[in-house]
Design a protein that fits this description.
Radius of gyration: 25 Å
CATH architecture of the largest domain: 3-Layer(bba) Sandwich
Number of strands: 18
CATH superfamily of the largest domain: FAD/NAD(P)-binding domain
Structural class: alpha+beta
Amino acid sequence: MNTDTKKSEYFDIAVIGGGAAGIMAAIIASQNGTKVVLIEKNQSLGKKLLLTGNGRCNITQANCDTRNFIEKVGKNGKFLFSSLSSFGPKETIEFFVHLGLKVKTEKDGRVFPASNKAQDVLDVLIKALVKNKVKLMFNQNVLGIKMKDGKVECVETENKKIYATNFILTTGGKSYPATGSTGDGYSWLARIGHKINSPAPALTPVKIKEDWVKDLQGTSLKNVGINLVQNERKINLGSGEIIFTHFGLSGPAIINASKIIGECLKKGKVLLGIDLFPTMDTTRLEEKLKIDFEKYKKINLKNYLSKLFPQKLALAAMSLSNIESDRKIHSLTKLERTNLVKIIKNIPATVEALLDFNHAMITSGGASLKEVNPKTMRSKIISNLFLAGEILDLDGPTGGYNLQIAWTTGHTAGEHAKNSVDKCP
């Protein structure tokens, strides 16, 4: 289509991307009568937001002060110090309660809508957008950013040219591309001079090479330890719940460790070790088995192990220990008992790959934080451009951290884009 035939519209602030960060940015930017447009490629807002927390929407993490939150985010967490101090989990909860959302905090600090419905979170946000008279443009696939004199002049869709004093880019990452997160914003930023740190799937399940893992499909284990070994270097990945799948391993403990696993995969072979008794060292476990084996020496080993963990896993542990499935406890040698303890404390699983962006909850990588002002979310390269949400090189663990990053950066971008409207020509 010839751009001369496109309809031109003018605003104080244009927000591109109708996910969590974009909605928050638009609400804050539109306060005090600022003329704001929110541009979305889908026919509705918040498609990915509706999927978070298994459809319950884990709004934030309440058991964290600013420093704890930063530690959880990792090496890039310090970037959030200023914005979290202004709008962190406490302020986020107050924000939603003020909008009329009833919330609840579960024992692990995760905050959800009281109804357990993500749709209720989206509904109060949309109500706030309407109240603030934000113009919502749906089905608008932005084709690119047009620059003039070192600033963003407008963004173009197939039938519109949208001009604004300030622009806020909140197009997300590449995870769950079916929701519209296809990484378009990365290419736009790269073309106008921003550095993009290679996007990679994060918070994603792991594909395992060994076939025995597939035999345990659907088995869930709580409070197991995970470690990683590469080139004789051992890394403790923490503990928690894991789930065996047809392709490998999933569950919170695996998903939270997937970023480290992915980084190590780039360097070579990665071996995971699953510790079924993380609170008991090898010596204590061997002593426990020695006592129990004397007590239950006449029964089959698989029946004893099946009392400790699911039978399929018991059989897998025996197989990995080279112990036949029909062996009785009294027939075991000391060496076989020692080998069984070693397996129980460290079931080996070779990582083949991380699952792709279709399965990843979030994206690791993105716009380099060195080129963004942490106090304002303003680009250091383009003075009328602000960035927020998953497009930034920021990601945290499960439990409300990533949505909080979206709310925090969106709030900061919206506030400062609004406050600088009169200062920009």
